[in-house]
Design goal:
This protein has 13 helices and no strands. By secondary structure, the chain is mostly helical. The protein has two domains: about 15-175, no CATH class; about 190-243, no CATH class. The longest helix is centred in the N-terminal third of the chain and has 32 residues, at about 15-45. The protein is globular. About 35% of the residues are buried.
């Protein structure tokens, strides 16, 4: 390569600062898109029986969209607090597995480690682990996590205020909207035959248990489908996929 070609290649490639700004912008836009969905959560949380402050605090402390929708879905259907928390916790376990991967990239200690744990969600993990090097992974994680946290909490408050102003949610059919929103959230994750089989199995278990258990309990029992799938060898799933 000639000196001129080398200089041209260097000028064409983005600098570290430019790459970091690009990743930061991506994180911010992810936060904007995710935060907008917080309006739906806030309105549905109020419809499920939470007040405005409870709805907002749940976003700030739990900070896990799937878990939050699961919790208000069970409460909205008349389930007990214990079953709602149990269902929410099962869905939140995935963030713990994310943390195993993200902690290797961030390598933070002290209060930063605690903050990173709070910000470890689907979006921040996805942006972080898809970067080409550790520095950009850190940029992606922090910008995405903080953007989503701020905007999700803000839009949750907006949704809760709007939902509270609407009055009785049953008049608008919002009492059934939380379970519907949760189903839509899960549907987007059923991208493999294995996950689809687990979903069908969980649905069958829930239908069998529903007439004999209180609201929220069938969801917890249905988690057995995932446990069974975890113990099945890969070739069993492969054989099912060919059917």
């Amino acid at each position: 390569m000639t000196d001129e070609a080398a200089r041209a290649a260097d000028s064409a490639s983005p600098t570290a600062a430019q790459a970091a700004r690009s990743v930061a912008r991506k994180g911010i836009w992810v936060g904007v898109a995710t935060g907008a969905y917080g309006i739906s959560y806030g309105a549905l949380a109020v419809a499920a029986g939470l007040n405005i402050w409870q709805s907002v605090l749940l976003s700030l402390l739990l900070f896990s969209g799937g878990s939050q929708f699961a919790l208000i879905g069970v409460l909205g259907a008349g389930g007990t607090g214990a079953s709602a928390v149990g269902t929410s916790t099962l869905l939140g376990l995935r963030n713990g597995f994310y943390g195993l991967q993200v902690s290797k990239l961030l390598q933070v200690t002290g209060w930063r480690r605690a903050l990173a744990a709070q910000l470890t969600i689907d979006e921040s993990t996805a942006v972080s682990i898809t970067q080409p090097n550790r520095d950009l992974s850190r940029v992606g994680f922090w910008w995405t996590g903080i953007s989503v946290y701020v905007l999700w909490g803000t839009m949750s408050a907006v949704g809760a205020i709007l939902g509270n102003a609407m009055g009785d949610p049953a008049r608008f059919g919002l009492d059934a909207a939380a379970p519907a929103a949760f189903c839509a959230l899960v549907r987007s994750r059923l991208t493999t035959r294995r996950s689809q089989l687990v979903a069908v199995g969980a649905g069958v278990i829930a239908l069998v248990v529903s007439p004999h258990a209180g609201s929220g309990i069938p969801v917890l029992v249905a988690a057995l489908a995932a446990v069974v799938a975890g113990f099945l060898p890969d070739r069993s799933i492969s054989s099912a996929e060919k059917i």
